[in-house]
Amino acid sequence: MSDPSVTPPVTSPSAEDGPRRSQLSDDLMRRVLGGNVMISVLAVVLALVIGGFLIAFADEEVREAATYFFSRPADLLSAAWQAVSEAYVALFRGAIFDWQAATFVGQVRPLTESVVFAVPLVLAGLGIAVGFRAGLFNIGAQGQIILGAIFASYIGFAWDLPVGLHLLLAVLGGAVGGAVWGAIPGGLKARFGANEVIVTIMLNYIAVYLISYILKQPVFNPGRSGQRSPNVADSATYPLLIPDWLVPGNNFRLHWGVVVALLATVFVWWLLERSTIGFELRAAGANPHAARTAGMSVGRTIFITMVIAGGLAGLAGTAQVLGTEGALTAGVAASYGFDAITVALLGRSRPLGTLVAGLLFGALKAGGFLMQSLTQTPIDIVLVVQSVIVLLIAAPPLVRAVFRVPDPTKPRRRSGATRTKEVAA
Amino acid sequence: MSTVTAPERADAAPAEEQVLARISYRTPVMYALAGLVTLFVFAVGTDPDASTTFQLASGSSWFTIPNFGVPSLVGALLLAAAQLAAAGWAYVLLRSRRGVPVWLHLLVGVAFVVSFLVWAGAGRTSVIPVTSLLAGALALSVPLIFGAMSGVICERSGVINIAIEGQLLFGAFVAAAIASQFASGYAGLAAAPFAGAAVGALLAWFAVSFRVNQIIVGVVLNTLVIGLTGFLFSTLMADDPGSWNARQPLGVIRIPVLSEIPVLGPVLFQQTILVYIMYVLVAVLQFMLFRSRWGLRTRAVGEHPKAADTVGIKVNTRRVWNVVLGGAVAGLGGAFFTVGSGLAFGREMSAGQGYIALAAMILGKWNPRLAVLAALLFGFSKNLGNVLSTIGSGVPSELLLMLPYIITIFAVAGFVGRVRPPAANGTAYTKD
Questions:
Q1: Are A307 and A268 part of one and the same domain?
Q2: Is some CB atom of chain B closer than 8 A to the CB atom of A413?
Q3: Boundaries of CATH 1.10.3470 in chain B?
Q4: Contacts from A36-44 at CB under 8 Å and sequence distance 24+?
Q5: Is the distance from CB of A202 to CB of B408 less than 8 angstroms?
Q6: Is the pLDDT reported for residue A5 higher than 60?
Q7: Do A270 and A182 lie in a common domain?
Q8: In whole angstroms, what is the distance from residue B230 CA to residue B243 CA?
Q9: Exposure b/e, B303-342, CB count within 10 A at least 16 = b
């Protein structure tokens, strides 16, 4: 704590842009003029094109047509077009709107599925984003989700409480579980200067073994050898957002976790932009030396940040066990912990950005499953598209070069440097 | 000047004038803790009559060492005494402001592990297979060591390489694909560095040329490689496993004479060529980093790029080449997963080892030698968990498998504490 010159290796000043120097309106103007929205759209297009090449390359008919490319080049092109368009049409049908479904409910179901997948991504992504803003690289969302899920599911199935209170306690328990797992790296960093990257990675592994141990204990696994805890009591599950009496015959899995995610987004916005803790947090991230000189306790800020980040990831765990899954399973965290990092990166560590990024990735995930089952295009392509999007958005000059878009801020020579810093946030 | 900087660098800066840095007694406390655990958990929990059997023999040695039994209680007590003595000595050393040597850390670590083994194997019919325990540990460490070396090469020049995971995985993938195409493990081995270097080149392109945050690029590249290899695994490789994903193991090479040494021989000198490359790599890197012009420039670029630039070193060029080289090293390490262990490629088969390698590098304070030790620690404790869960001990296997990670957290918080990365690590360099 007494050693500000020794910042952790991965939390460089450029990892965080620091307090927004300009006012909101000015910032907005600059962002629109700077073409960030356009860059994002172009990046998505480019990523889909690259994904398309991969799909075409992996398609057997395309490879066959490629062997006689020079005699009949049109065959290759049509085969490639067919493979790629089929895959992307299925992706769209699985993510947004399925016009082939019989009923309207069936047609909009993909959209609700996208939101279901987005909820844990948004919540965990917010946790990571809060860490980024404080200059902390929290890789531990996976472990925090798992701990949150363990706490929430235990309260959910083992306790017997009235409706309402039960759900509230289970959700809070999940947040506490995640917060505990976040407090460990936070406390160790604040007290001993232990590198949070290492500690969070290690805690992920410990959590994975912990959940497989816990699922073998009699409490969590009465009389069975399965990988699933007893189902969470009805009083502790998130109610469905669109109940049957509202839209009859719907099979939406959309639950109140969505509301939790929205509330969490608002909370994080308030925390970062309007609260004292948020100010200290951003100050510690932007320049720990200056923060310390200004009389802030950087160690305390780090600890609080990690507790909040862990709590948010723990809420992501509750969305799984109290909502989508209804019980604790060994794979409860799936790949959400690592996907959340890309979500936070794409959202540039801002609450609203993280929400939008989470929805986009949720949609890609939901669509990816239909694409895999309909066209045998592996869902891994979604990962490729996601990562290319993030890479491209982080490097606007590259996107501009590909599409020959002029740089709106070109006349000022140093604009390039300021923008890359902005991107880094 | 000293009065201004002294409070900032209390841990690291040597005492100047009358201002002496506070002595941190963390090391003896940790030693004593280990000794007390040995005494009160391992020794107290052992049946006085029980003994633990160790097996040192393996097939081809000059002579065979018979299995030998150690009286468990006496062994545990002696080891506890040794650890407590080490704690006392470390205290005396620190008291007189001398450093605690690395080998003392090692000694205490080994003593603690052996006392754990004595306790775990007490009164059991199954023996503790020392040779296979060590051999397995080395095998699990190989990709970690390559990954940690890759990290050292990149980060010493000021570029954070989180993409080690992706480089390992892509190396493993390309090694498997090329090896089955040419029906030779060595072809795959030769191709793997290029795969890792390709990922490294992407990292350098985005992080150095476009000055995108290095951690972002690294994490995203990992996802990209997982997606790409997973995609090709379930299309290309699944369609025609015979020509794209056949097992092509590298042959085991026995070094004459050396491989006959009991215990050490089979562990160190009956290995594939990849492991011998690793020995050479570590030695060369340790020498080059601190004794060559390349190493001096690399460190200069990583510590103070502006100064390096002033004396005419091309900062960004040096960084790009180091990142590509580091990628190649990690790619080579990735070959261990497929051709190095005679396995076919599997989805996400690097399983987070790249992140562990990163942890080993940080634990090793960006120093090749220490990073190797840290990687071996991970490999050993992981294998210890595996071995003990198969020979059976009272502890549930999940808790045993957690052990390496818990130890690491203690090590990071206790022994290592605030590590000092290269000063310019993670920041892009621009000339203005």
A1: yes
A2: no
A3: 132-416
A4: A36/A396, A38/A405, A39/A392, A39/A393, A39/A396, A39/A399, A39/A400, A40/A393, A42/A392, A42/A399, A42/A402, A42/A403, A42/A405, A43/A388, A43/A389, A43/A392, A43/A393, A43/A399, A44/A389
A5: yes
A6: no
A7: yes
A8: 17
A9: bbbeebbeeebebbebbbbbbbbbbbbbbbbbbbbbbbbe
Are A320 and A332 a contacting pair, CB within 8 Å? Answer: yes
Predicted pLDDT at B58: 61
pTM to 2 decimal places = 0.84
- Residue A225: its pLDDT value, please? 61
Which residues of B are less than 8 Å from A12 in CB distance?
A: 160, 213-214, 425-427
Q: Is the minimum CB–CB distance between B163 and chain A shorter than 8 Å? A: no
Instruction: Give A252-296 pLDDT, tens digit per residue.
Output: 888 999 999 999 999 999 999 999 999 999 999 888 899 999 999
Please report the ipTM that was assigned to this predicted complex: 0.80
Contact list in A for residue B374 (CB cut-off 8 A) is none
pLDDT mean across residues, chain A: 84
For residue A197, what pLDDT is reported? 81
Co-location of A122 and A89 in the same domain: no
Exposure string over A344-358, b if 16+ CB within 10 A, otherwise e: bbbbbbbbebbbbbb
CB contact A192 to B (< 8 Å): yes
Look at residue A425 in the predicted model and tell me its pLDDT: 43
- Whether residue A187 lies within 8 A of chain B, CB to CB, comes out as no
At A184 the pLDDT is 95
- The helix or strand, by DSSP H or E, that contains position B88, with its residue range, turns out to be helix B72-95
Question: A212: which chain B residues are within 8 Å (Cβ-Cβ)?
Answer: 398
Is residue A358 included in any domain, yes or no? no
**How many domains are there within chain A?**
2
Q: For position A420, what pLDDT does the model report?
A: 45
Which residue range forms the structural domain that includes residue A328?
118-349
Which of A315, A349, A383 finishes a domain?
A349
> What confidence category does residue A182 fall into, taking pLDDT thresholds of 50, 70 and 90?
very high
Q: Are residues A140 and A272 in the same domain?
A: yes
CB-based contacts of B112: which residues, under 8 Å, 6+ apart? Answer: B34, B37, B38, B79, B83
Could you tell me if A205 and A237 lie in one domain? Answer: yes
pLDDT at position B123? 72
Of A301, A322, A349, which one is at a domain's C-terminal end? A349
How far apart CA A12 and CA A288 sit, in angstroms, is 10
Is B215 touching A (CB cutoff 8 A)? yes
Contact indicator for A134, A349 with CB cutoff of 8 Å: no
Q: Which helix (H) or strand (E) holds B81?
A: helix B72-95
d(CA B251, CA A43): 46
**Whole-number pLDDT of residue B192:** 96
Assigned token pair, B121? 């194997």
| pLDDT number for residue B392 | 66
Give the integer Cα–Cα distance in Å for A156 and A171: 9
Residue A154 lies in a domain: yes
**Mean pLDDT for chain B?**
85
- Give A315→chain B minimum CA distance, Å: 23
Alpha-carbon distances of A323 from A119, A123, A238, A260, rounded to whole Å: 10, 14, 5, 11
**Side-by-side strand order, sheet with B128-129:** B68-71, B51-55, B128-129
Residues of chain B with pLDDT under 70: 1-18, 57-64, 392-394, 414-419, 432
Give me the CATH code for the B132-416 domain, please: 1.10.3470
List b or e across A300-319, with b for residues whose CB sees 16 or more CB atoms inside 10 angstroms.
ebbbbbbbbbbbbbbbbbbb
Give the Cβ contact number of residue B55 at 10 Å. Answer: 17
Q: Which residue has the tokens 């969505």?
A: A258
Kindly indicate the confidence band of residue A422, based on its pLDDT and cuts at 50, 70 and 90: very low
A155 and A268 housed in the same domain: yes
Pick A60's closest partner by Cβ from B221, B239, B421: B239
For chain B, the residue count is 432
